[in-house]
Amino acid sequence: MTPGDYGLRLHDAGLHYGKQIALQGINLWVNNGERLAIIGPSGAGKTSLLRLLATQVQPSSGELELLGQKPWALSARQRKTLRSQLGLIQQTPPLPPRQRVVTAVLAGRLGQWSLAKSLCSLLYPLDTDGAADALVRLDLSDKLFQRCDELSGGQLQRVGIARVLYQQARLILADEPVSAMDPVLAGHTLSVLNQEAESRGITLLASLHAVDLALAHFPRIIGVRDGQIMFDLPASAVDQARLDALYANEQLSNPVPASAPAAPTAVHIPRC
Fold first, then answer.
1. Which of 161, 185, 210 is the last residue of a domain?
2. Domain boundary among 136, 161, 186
3. Tens digit of pLDDT for each residue in 50-106?
4. Secondary structure (3-state) at 197
5. For residue 215, what is the domain's CATH number?
6. What is the pLDDT of residues 156-169, one digit of tens each?
């Protein structure tokens, strides 16, 4: 397999915060276009793994490759260019409270635009239609000119997702992207993300607390516990015994059905 065939690779990667071990012995190979969910108990290392992949922290050991490049062997400018191709969706999007939604969505391409164009867009939105197209997919078209501090938590999460849709990233990393949404809205939003990844042939990784959503929407599941990968399997192969072992001593907040339900094809989206 050539470097252009995979979206990311971790080889024996570890991450330490002082004496605390966050990740150890992580080996992961993800092809371009694959869609994965990362599950595991609280404190398992899911967020640390995504921060490592996003180049927010440097591995304490081992090797990381993203989109055919080794980010920590690049210059600061080259690493910045690489980061502009990564779409990061955070559980609490870092959106300025007084910023209008249209500006927040257009900020998805600031890393790709010149300084002059970026400053101009912050003062006067340059692509209102593009922002509206991203928002309509998430049922937020009526929020285009509202301020971010007028939105609910679930709406803010969807604005953060709309920004990544507008960005046209080559690799999407999502950390608990639907945690503030009800199950129906969360399912619809994950469907939109999966449709984006599938239609453009890009890689999507999402950490999810809701096991049922992970199994319903992602074909490949990574189970993480105590900073290590416990299993890496097709969703159809993740049985109750594996989940019981993964979540030992921690009660599942979302009971897993015997067979994961298919993602709904049509839903009524509540405005929350």
1. 161
2. 161
3. 999 999 999 999 999 999 999 999 999 999 999 999 999 999 999 999 999 999 999
4. helix
5. 3.40.50.300
6. 999 999 999 999 99
Q: How far apart are CA 106 and CA 131, in angstroms?
A: 6
6 falls within a domain = no
211: left (phi over 0), alpha (psi -120 to 50) or beta: alpha
Reduced to 3 states, what is the DSSP secondary structure of residue 200? helix
Using a cut of 0.85, tell me whether the model's pTM lies above it: yes
The residue among 268, 46, 271 whose CA lies nearest residue 176 is 46
Strands (E), 189-260: 203-207, 220-225, 228-234
Rounded to 5 degrees, φ, ψ at 247 are: -105, 25
Separation of CA 91 from chain center? 9
Do 175 and 266 lie in a common domain?
yes
Q: Which domain range does residue 37 map to?
A: 33-61+70-85+169-272
Count of structural domains, the chain = 2
The answer to whether 45 touches 227, Cβ cutoff 8 Å, is yes
3-state SS track over 87-141: EEECCCCCCCCCCEHHHHHHHHHCCCCCHHHHHHHHHCCCCHHHHHHHHHCCCCH
